[in-house]
Design a protein that fits this description.
Elements: H1 11-16, E1 20-24, E2 27-32, H2 36-45, E3 48-51, E4 56-61, H3 65-72, E5 85-91, E6 97-107, E7 110-115, H4 120-130, E8 135-138, E9 143-149, H5 153-160, E10 173-178, E11 181-186, E12 195-201, H6 205-215, E13 222-224, H7 226-235, H8 270-279, E14 283-290, E15 301-304, E16 307-318, E17 323-331, E18 340-345, E19 348-355
Parallel strand pairs: 3-13
Antiparallel strand pairs: 1-2, 3-9, 4-7, 4-8, 5-6, 6-7, 9-12, 10-11, 11-12, 14-17, 14-19, 15-16, 15-18, 16-17, 18-19
């Protein structure tokens, strides 16, 4: 029998406003409230709230914490300052992806990792098996997480916070309170817009969510479901585990070589990735735009002059660019911007081309 779907601390808040709830990674989550396109545009033009409490959080601490992270992540955790965040990847020995994640340095010998919801159990088993030099704790169930994203996010969070959030740089965080709720205020996100991800106790998540909705009414705040979260991240060409990266794709093919740091020393997957880097990747994850009006969906074949040349990993209509866009793995020789391709959709070859990404310009506040 299938296990019952898990629910976030904000489940009742979603149901109360009529959100359409769907299964996602073992969770019952809101896919939309008013509508995907309307919600997408609310984030690009004003500010949106996302319940991402289904994501997983692990804490690792002790004198061996850094060594533990260095052994299981591809990026160089030694470069992290206290208060800084880092994007990274767990890899299998063959270089394929266990998961992608963010690493937070909380103190000299204490870190927090945020992992994908569908991978919590797998990832925790992975780190506790392969990185035993430190103390691990799975704090996912006791952690709530609300993302506040959009050009008006800084004003909204700043109005409710106990500190000046304008001083929190991109991929940095501060400990404080928002709406009198103890919060880790992280300047990160998955939309390409400026904003924050607010970590709090699960028991406080509903109070924080309500305060943000109430405080943001004049700014046009809206709750945002998974549907718009997907179109927003697609316009930025942000990889989604299970679609664009998984145990069949390596970090270099996926364009994540910038977080693979072999110079730091040994880590799981290092030798395989160095071999792939030396030999050259055989395929690349690229952005494609449909020339013919059609939606290229996950798993659709990519063709070149009628022959198989790749596969679509994510695809949708992009509301901000008003085009049908997708991500796809294609042969390296076909990865150049401007290359003409086709996508096989219900037995018909539809014209497409490789385009520069991100599809929509990033507006994260990096300064």
């Amino acid at each position: 029998m299938n296990a019952p779907l898990k629910r976030t601390p904000l489940h009742q808040a979603h149901v109360a406003v009529g959100a359409r709830m769907v299964p996602f990674g073992g969770w019952e989550m809101p896919v939309q409230y008013a509508g995907i396109i309307e919600e997408h545009r609310a984030v690009r033009s004003a500010v949106g709230l996302f319940d991402v409490s289904h994501m997983g959080e692990f804490e690792v601490e002790g004198p061996g914490a850094l060594a533990a992270l260095q052994s299981v992540t591809t990026n160089d955790a030694a470069a992290l300052e206290i208060g800084q965040v880092q994007y990274s990847v767990f890899c299998y020995p063959n270089g394929t992806v266990v998961d992608d994640l963010t690493v937070y340095r909380l103190a000299a010998d204490r870190y927090m990792l945020t992992v994908n919801a569908s991978n919590i159990d797998k990832d925790y088993a992975w780190v506790t098996e392969h990185a035993k030099t430190a103390r691990w704790r799975n704090v996912s169930a006791e952690t709530g997480l609300v993302a506040v994203q959009g050009p008006k996010a800084e004003v909204l969070v700043g109005r409710l916070a106990d500190q000046d959030v304008t001083t929190i740089g991109y991929y940095r965080f501060a400990l404080g309170a928002v709406a009198a709720v103890p919060t880790l205020i992280s300047r990160t996100g998955y939309t390409g817009e400026d904003g924050f991800e607010l970590y709090t106790a699960a028991s406080d998540a509903a109070r924080l969510w309500a305060a943000l909705l109430d405080g943001g009414r004049a700014a046009g705040v809206a709750p945002i479901g998974l549907g718009a979260r997907d179109t927003l991240r697609l316009e930025m060409k942000y990889a989604l585990y299970g679609n664009d990266i998984d145990a069949t794709t390596n970090a270099l093919d996926a364009g994540l070589g910038w977080v693979v740091k072999p110079a730091k020393g040994e880590f799981i997957g290092r030798d395989a990735l160095e071999k792939i880097r030396a030999e050259g990747v055989r395929r690349r994850l690229v952005g494609i735009e449909m020339v013919d009006k059609a939606v290229a969906r996950h798993g659709y074949p990519v063709l070149k002059d009628g022959r198989p040349a790749g596969i679509v990993t994510s695809g949708s209509y992009g509301p901000s660019v008003d085009k049908y866009i997708a991500m796809a793995y294609v042969e390296t020789a076909l990865a150049a911007v401007g290359t003409a391709l086709e996508v096989e959709i219900r037995g018909q070859a539809k014209a497409a081309r490789v385009v520069k990404t991100p599809f929509h310009p990033s507006r994260v506040k990096k300064a």
